[in-house]
Amino acid sequence: MGYTYVELTVFTSKGEYKERGVMVDTGATYTTLPQNILEKIGAFKLPTKVPLELGDRRTIEAETFAASAKIADREGPIIIASFENAKPLIGVQTLESLGLKVNPVTGELEETRPKGIAYL
Questions:
Q1: Is residue 119 part of a domain?
Q2: In terms of residue numbers, what domain contains 34?
Q3: Beta-ladder partners of 61
Q4: Which CATH number covers residue 61?
Q5: Within 10 A of 73 (CB to CB), how many other CB atoms are there?
Q6: I need a labelling partner for 22 at 20 to 30 A (CA). Which of 2, 57, 85, 95 fits?
Q7: For all residues of the chain together, what is the average pLDDT?
């Protein structure tokens, strides 16, 4: 399987950030964005920091934020991790929140449940 890239919109009641070509990483738990973007759009800073293991095996502590995201015609609440030099990346928590998954054969996003429905 190759890489999957999509258009991502992250938004709050105060602003939005949109970028094309954001990589989907099914090995990443959280979506990541630079902190200055999160502050600019008014993302809610959470009181919890999370330890993240990076691809080079270093462990860092990341700030966490809450906002909403939109990919294709799906939108919902997400948790975003931010740390020094964070690049835009979509993790599985966001995919789960929006009811999406990566098809390992085609590399395309697919729905895991009907639009507008979340399971409890």
A1: no
A2: 4-111
A3: 51
A4: 2.40.70.10
A5: 9
A6: 57
A7: 95
Per-residue confidence band for 55, with pLDDT thresholds at 50, 70 and 90:
confident
* pTM metric for this prediction: 0.92
Contacts within 8 Å (CB) and 24+ apart, 46-53: 46/79, 50/81, 52/81, 52/83
The Cα 42–Cα 34 span in angstroms is: 13
Q: Residues near 13 by Cβ (< 8 Å), separated by ≥ 6?
A: 42
CA distance 59 to 6: 27
Using CA of residue 54, residue 104, residue 117, residue 11, what is the dihedral sign?
A: positive
According to DSSP, the residues that pair with 82 across neighbouring strands are: 63
pLDDT digit string, tens, across residues 2-24? 789 999 999 999 999 999 999 99
Within a domain: residue 15? yes
Query: Per the structure, how many domains does the chain have?
Result: 1
Phi and psi at 91, nearest 5°, equal: -100, 175
Pairing of strands 4-11, 16-24: antiparallel
- Asked if residue 95 belongs to a domain, the reply is yes
Q: pLDDT digit string (tens) for 65-102?
A: 999 999 999 999 999 999 999 999 999 999 999 999 99
